[in-house]
């Protein structure tokens, strides 16, 4: 990196150059100028990262220089060199994003520390800018994929967006939906060959997406789900249009389609409830043999009140039992999922098994299980379950696989050292929002503080303070991503009552401020 020094007194600029060259140990190029205009020409061409300039100079003052550098907008860090008498004048430089001030006569050590801080800040901002640009490039190139992932998340993952977050997602993904209904389409697949089933799924998909480009659609388990934008709140008018569409589709292809319609909503957070409504309609159509258009409002009361099997909730429950290592509950829940999907197609069943696998891999990534065990679990799924074509065999292998995972988790819990570290982690997880230290932890587990310090280092490879900071910052990142709390409130909730200190710790770990982190993560 290039560091520029500007002072109209050559003796001072040369002295500062020598100080910087010695203090920065040749790691950066240091240039000194006695003329501000010459320095400005150099800055415009070379774009140095850090600029140390006198504030009072003939011709171009430090304030004017800062203004012109600020207009170049490449993130240079400017440090003003000023005397006590000029300090109030120097404060005007704040509007030009001046990084810091050094008072004359300059203390060598303080000057080196200041410039090192400026260099670190410049590098951090450049890294942040590069990362932000990578996100932007990815977003532009993969917008359709991201839209599809967003729709899948709305339908099948227990994610809760605040109203503000939802609006931001809609803006970023260019989703122009104010009011909508969920519409689901399926067809009679009984005794239908797999290739024919795939063909008709494709026909339905193409028919709706080409004819109605404004809808957001997702195919899962032989059901075509659509988020259908509409201003029509009157149900029978909306259904009349859909009935015409259903008849048109029936004329194009020799298949009996059923269309299910949810209630009207203006909030995309209602999607999963509306998904349940259309699934109840489809279940009613299957039970009664009524392959036509049905709305949730038209269903008999016993169907509306009946709890419908929700695979997303079932998998979430399975993961909860897996986390506790309760083998009996795990197998009971897995059998429930198998029983509930017994009448579904092979394709649907396979999709559910893959969905369970994906959720378990995600769960495993967040627990302190050793890498070798995790790799064996992943390999066993790919080599023993993924390849099975017969439904019963796949279901049996899945249960054996879950038992194997439960045994690994139980072994991890039963290990003496793991029990102690888990005890420590539990205490930290429960209390990291409080002003706790190593003494509090040692008292909680009835051990000597020096022993606990060594044990934590030996067991984790990290210091107690590093673990505590990580827990606090992980919770802070979660709150920044998923809540509308002010940053001051988040800082207090994670154990940093001093906002300035929290910002310094967060920035030091993440190379970006909490506000910048929140801004970036709203894109995804």
UniProtKB/TrEMBL annotation:
The keyword Zinc does not apply. Residues 422-520 form the HTH araC/xylS-type domain. Gene3D superfamilies: 3.40.50.2300, Homeodomain-like. It comes from Blautia difficilis. The modification 4-aspartylphosphate is found at residue 54. Residues 2-119 form the Response regulatory domain. Keywords: Cytoplasm, DNA-binding, Phosphoprotein, Transcription, Transcription regulation, Two-component regulatory system. InterPro entries: CheY-like_superfamily, Homeodomain-like_sf, HptR, HTH_AraC, Sig_transdc_resp-reg_receiver, Tscrpt_reg_AraC-type_HTH. PROSITE patterns: HTH_ARAC_FAMILY_2, RESPONSE_REGULATORY. May play the central regulatory role in sporulation. It may be an element of the effector pathway responsible for the activation of sporulation genes in response to nutritional stress. Spo0A may act in concert with spo0H (a sigma factor) to control the expression of some genes that are critical to the sporulation process. It is found in: Cytoplasm. It comes from the Bacteria. CDD domains: REC_YesN-like. The keyword Cell inner membrane does not apply. Pfam families: HTH_18 (PF12833), Response_reg (PF00072). This is Stage 0 sporulation protein A homolog.
